[in-house]
């Protein structure tokens, strides 16, 4: 039995999310069914983290065990062949130790959120970014974002459906950068609460419009009340870009 680590990219638009669900098609389901067609019904896919419906990935990681003689390149190509026509691609497969686990071995996760700040509707970036029509002050957004960096109780920045036992998280980075009409928000942490990145983005968007102050963001963090923070940004602009391992 050999354990393989898979690096995966996908367009989250047609999926109910990463995790297998009874209603709708998930990314995990597509990958697992593809792997089973290649190496048998015992194949199971384990992911580094769950992405919500509509959220994309450029560097999701997963692992599976294969009980047959093969090579990483064959694993990659065979799974990709059987994933068709779903927008899922295994970018790389590699052999890892038996104790490697895509989720529990990870020491960090990186997310990117894309905002297109313009009046014109999206075409190429439709379902791949959040169009915000009102002008945004990206410098003020970046400055305010630093209030959230560090070890905090993020109760006010998580979904009511969040199942995490503790709301304490250490946000290592939250940067806001403008590239023409596009605003990119980069977030790094060991792990995130359910909807944490999207709520932080929705909150910073309100500040960028001049509707929130830095004091409002500090108060939302201190109070732990969800209603004090901003709205949950849509999933379209969110990408899991990298899972970090020792």
Number of alpha- plus pi-helical segments: 5
What average pLDDT do the residues reach? 96
Provide the helix percentage.
10-25%
Amino- and carboxy-terminal Cα gap:
23 Å
The string of secondary-structure elements, in order, is: EHEEHEEEHEEEHHE
Large-scale geometry: globular
What would you report as the Rg, rounded to the nearest angstrom?
Answer: 19 Å
How many strands, what sense, and barrel or not for the largest sheet? 10 strands, mixed
Low-confidence stretches: none
- Give the number of DSSP strands: 10
Strand content range: 25-35%
Sheet/helix structural class: alpha+beta
How would you concisely characterize the structure shown here?
This protein is an alpha+beta fold and 246 residues long. The chain contains 5 helices and 10 strands. Strands 1, 2, 3, 4, 5, 6, 7, 8, 9 and 10 form a 10-stranded mixed beta sheet that branches.
